[in-house]
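re the bet — no i am not wrong, look at it urself. input seq straight from the record:
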Amino acid sequence: MTRYRVRVQFETDGPQIVGEWERRPTAERAFRKWIGSRPARPGLLIRLTQQDEEGPEVELDSWPPTEEQ
C-alpha cells in the first residue's frame, strides 16, 4: 500500500508534525493547507512525500521549494 505523508518542521533540525494518508489528493490538500496557514520564516519546511510498501520515501513537493525541484 502506498502512503503519503506531510511533514511540517518549524525549525532546522527541530521536531516534526507528521500526517499520513492513503490517498494522494487528501495529502495534497493537507500540504496546501499547511502552506496557507504558516508564514514564511527561517527553518520552516513543509514536505509532501510518498512511500510504496517496500520502497524508500520519496519527496514529491516541498515548501519553500528545495533547489532539487
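see?? The two ends are 26 Å apart (CA to CA). told u. also The mean pLDDT is 90. so pay up
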